[in-house]
Fold this sequence. Notes:
InterPro entries: EIF2D, eIF2D_N, eIF2D_SUI1, Pre-PUA, PUA-like_sf, PUA_eIF2d-like, SUI1, SUI1_dom_sf
Largest sheet: 5 strands, antiparallel
Family: Belongs to the eIF2D family.
Strand order of the largest sheet: 1-2-3-4-5
Mean pLDDT: 78
CATH topology of the largest domain: Sulfate adenylyltransferase
Number of domains: 4
Structural class: alpha+beta
Protein name: Ligatin
Distance between the termini: 67 Å
Keywords: Cytoplasm
Low-confidence stretches: 189-245, 348-358
Organism: Batillaria attramentaria
Amino acid sequence: MFLKPFRVKTQTTLKGSDRKKLRSDVEQQFPSLTSAKTADLIPNKGDVTLVKIVTHSDDNVLVYCVQKNPVFFELFKSLYPTVYTLWKFPDMLPVFTTYREVFPRLVGGADLMLPGVIVKGEPHPKMFGALQKGDLCVIRAPVVLGQTLLSGEDMYASAMKGKGVKTLHILGDQLWEFGDKSQPPVIPDEPDTDSAAEEDDENEIEKTMENQEASASVDEASEGVEQLTVDDATTESKDTASVNTDDDMDGLLQHCFKCAIKSRVKKTDLPLLTSTFLKVHMQPFCPAGHHLDVKKSSYKKFSRFLQQMQSEGFIKLKEVSKGVDAISEVDRTHADLRGLVVPDVPEEENPGDGAAQEEFEPPEISEVLCVTAALLPLLSAQGLHKGDTLTPADLRQHITQYVKTNNLQATENKSLVQLDPILAHLVLTKSEGDQSHLTWNDLFARIVDKMQPGCLIKFPGKPAVLKKGKVDPIKVDVQQRGSKKKVTIVENLEAYGVDPKVFAQTVQRAVACSASAVSSEQKNRGLEVVVQGNQITFIAGLLLDKYKIPRKYVQGLEKGPKSKNRR
């Protein structure tokens, strides 16, 4: 519903009587929320606004915001909680849990299929309690608000096959971006007999999600999937043993953070990518023999720690591109910094030349195909909707299934597919109206042309973000300045999590030439790096080898200096 941008019509402050009515409606629709909880959620004082929006599909939706954070939205006289509300009251709705591999599909707008639901023990008719078709539910952490497409008993009767939950709202969509873009908190496990999944499964999937979000490597993510089988006794013992460790790491993070913003971060460094701030500015203040490990703190993720520091007034954050955050302002006059004694750190431990980015973790970029309206007659019977994402392999599988289900493969020549009216209307041009067969490869290629390209971009520790269209590459170009001077310009580094300032310093020290990060002349493109001379050969090695950016996402490397032929 909110995968595509919506249009804001009006925004008004909610009066006291309207707030009271809203609280009453919430309590009536969600009995698990007491009067005290609704009063905390929708206060008498403070900034409570009603925003009228129009979605991409022309639905009129009312969004209720508290302190500019959406807490409920109203559609067809029914209230729906946002993920921000679900994080505050995680047990207000029945709960489903699913596997790590399912979430990228949910982000793309797909519904939760029943085979992807984790069920403890043998399935039975009452495994989901009194759940009815059309009931609201959440998909843990919770990161998805959904609506059941079957009752609990019908799910059992269907042998856990087919669609189970329709996705209404998800972490990372436009409604989430309308708020403060915070990440899911660490939610304590509490017994809840009414939840759609058992307590053990909830504990395990939450632990898995925390591990996978904080992890930056495929191996660690795989370990997260294996942890779905960890029993409660192991989880409890680990939680108990880590209490003191969490407290110690919290204090260490705060100490290094305050030292860094008081003594290291200069005005010229801003805006400063958060990944660079941690590695270049905070890590040097960590005592010998220790290492800053956010996963061992109560925050679990660095973005959540910075959100807390922002709420305490130390810094201000801004999103420079989807999934990439930067520190835009620093308050060195903060009361907590006045008496702080900053330890002396040798200058060489502050790797301004970019050495701190030796452990740079590039984003995971998955190219996908988005279902368009033209393809719905072909794919809707297989449970797909407009906007759903598929890999090319998934699309080929769906086409193959359609052809075999409708007996369209030619009997005499297996390499040909007979075109039924749906396929013919979809892939043939007017001049090909009398054509009755196509080869498998030709059919597949023509259907791909009817789909919208897109990509899922996942930065370490953050949910994948769907971007329609092809991803913009890093652009490297050589321009003439004056009669004999040339400069190399590198654009769009920030979209891949590369700090332009650190990148410029690395180039400057390596090739002994002038290099700087300046604002791009193009609107909303952030910083670009300008280097003296034609340095494409060195920059190519830096991007491909050190930063591990795939070559297909770097444009202009062929403009490097040509070697002169020896006679």
